[in-house]
Amino acid sequence: MTEKETIFKRMKDLPSTHLLGTGTSMCAGCGGLQALHEIYDILGEKNVFVNAAGCMTLLTVYPFTPFRGSWLYTAMASAPGGAQGIRDALDILLERKRISKKEDLDVVVLTGDGAAYGMGLSATSAAMDRNLNFIYICYDNEGYANTGQQYSAATPHAAHTATSQSTLGFSGYKKDLFSIWAAHKPAYIATVIGSDPLDLARKIEKVKEMRGPRMIIALSPCPTGWEYDPKDSVAIGKLAVKTGMWPLKEYENDQVVHTRIPHPRVPVEEYLKLQGRFSHLFEPKRNEALLSELQSQIDSYWADVG
Ligand SMILES: Cc1ncc(C[n+]2csc(CCOP(=O)(O)OP(=O)(O)O)c2C)c(N)n1
Ligand code: SF4
Ligand SMILES: [Mg+2]
Question: Is the CB of residue 56 less than 8 Å from the CB of residue 33?
Answer without folding.
Answer: yes
